[in-house]
Amino acid sequence: MSDDAVTHLNQKLDRLTQVLEQHFGISSQDNDLDAVTAFVWHSENNWLQPVQNVNRVKLELLKGVDNVRDILIDNTERFANSYAANNALLWGARGMGKSSLVKAAHAHVLKNIPKSNLKLIEIHREDINTLPALLRILRDADCKAILFCDDLSFDNDDTSYKSLKAALDGGVEGRPDNVIFYATSNRRHLLPRDMMENERSTAINPSEAVEEKVSLSDRFGLWLGFHKCTQDDYLEMVFGYVEASNLKLNKDEVRAQALEWSTTRGSRSGRVAWQFVQDLAGRNKKNTA
Q: What is the value of pTM for the model shown?
């Protein structure tokens, strides 16, 4: 291609970019990391959308996860203080507060280490392959950032996990010192069992094929497991939400209704406890905390 053709093509691309920016009303230059403490990454236009009010649960309301809570907070505080810290994978039972803990840990550090300038940036699972672009924006930023991907997992024939592996600790540039990655997943290795079994049955070297995929979860220095809660843990969660919502109700009646609620749902978890208290407050013409 001649120099004139390249110049002409670049001019067309510049005009196309201008049209797209005018249409969407934003561009990658609009990113203001000082605006708020939380953002959502939009890969289609390299935009960090500010989030004014983060949907959080107070740290003290997260019951039955004391050990993993303390580990994650300690890791986040070390990162905020510019000490060595690990990427973290929060995996396990549904509804046990994995994503709530990440957001609560961020709020806790902001309160206790305000000078850390710690940002929480949510990246959607389908945008994982755009991580390099996001890291380029953050690499020279005057802040620290937790990249947070909720419900991360990969299905058959999905190769975007390779982008995550490279972004976490591979590649020439590596992960920026001011960035850490937290993810939640129901799967310990982020990949479905049948996917790994299929690799084992069809590969020339089955063990190497499985190891290549399992190595993704190895990029996370912290594996924090969340397990199904006991009845006592469930009731502790219920009464914690009831107290925080200032619901003055008979404790025995609340207990009986909470157990019935969990039976009809067929499970006990922090999410089920919160949904019960939401219903309880509504029936009593009150709001939750």
A: 0.79
